[in-house]
Amino acid sequence: MARKKLLLGNWKMNKTPSEAKEFALGCKEMVEFAVANNIDVGVAPTYVCLQTVVENADAKLIVAAQNVSQYDHGAYTGEISIPMLKEIGVKWVILGHSERRTYDAETSEKCNAKIKALLANEMTPVYCCGETLETFEAGETKPFVSEQIRTGLAGLSAQEAAKVVIAYEPIWAIGTGKNATKEIAEDTISAIRGVLADMFGATAEDMRILYGGSVKPNNIAEYMSEPDIDGALVGGASLALDSYKGLIDGLVK
Questions:
Q1: Cβ neighbours for 127, distance < 8 A, ≥ 6 positions apart
Q2: How many CA atoms, within 13 angstroms, populate the side-chain half-sphere of residue 171?
Q3: Bridge partner residues of 95 (DSSP)
Q4: Could you tell me the residue range of the domain that residue 230 belongs to?
Q5: CATH number for 24
Q6: Hey, which residues are catalytic here?
Q7: Sign of torsion, CA 87 92 98 101?
Q8: H/E element, 41
Q9: For the chain, what is the domain count?
Q10: Are the CB atoms for 228 and 208 separated by under 8 Å?
């Protein structure tokens, strides 16, 4: 069975609640169009916008948080827990994004604890991996990303791993306008699937792996033509309604 395509927009630290509401109301038709074409679509707003989007968007739009604590309550100032997200209807969470790793010391080990906590709560982790320009130019991409995958998914059963979405984002291609060619993206994502096969056997063929890194309406179809790329995690191009529609159109082609 073919893996279902997935478009996930990471809004990062953008949009106020009123702007998020405007987007949620404005994207209903395009969400229905995507679903009718067997494509999953979603967005990851900031914490303060999550409930607004859940309440105003088409029910079929996936709404993801950009991070979560591995602890369900306690003295963790500034953190948000899984029960808090569940109560407002959020069931997906992005983990290990390069910006979290760079600015907030998020490690693959910490992501592993969060992934296990999410799976125990029947939620979907989107686990990010990717290398710096220095690592890429040194030809060390595959061992580097392989280590992120092995550490982040350590201790999971094949059944649990099947519920995780992987997002490969070369750091040197995020927001730089410099994007990996579809061949580079496919080569690395194919290698990631090989690592998943080594860890989880045949389950790897069912796991969705997204590409992220300067994905835009005019190049998304190119990436989707590759056999191992199952969708995209998109930053800036997911913020405007017309651009988001362009991304969906590119996935449908």
A1: 95, 96, 111, 115, 152, 153, 164, 165, 166, 167
A2: 19
A3: 127
A4: 5-252
A5: 3.20.20.70
A6: 97, 169
A7: positive
A8: strand 39-44
A9: 1
A10: no
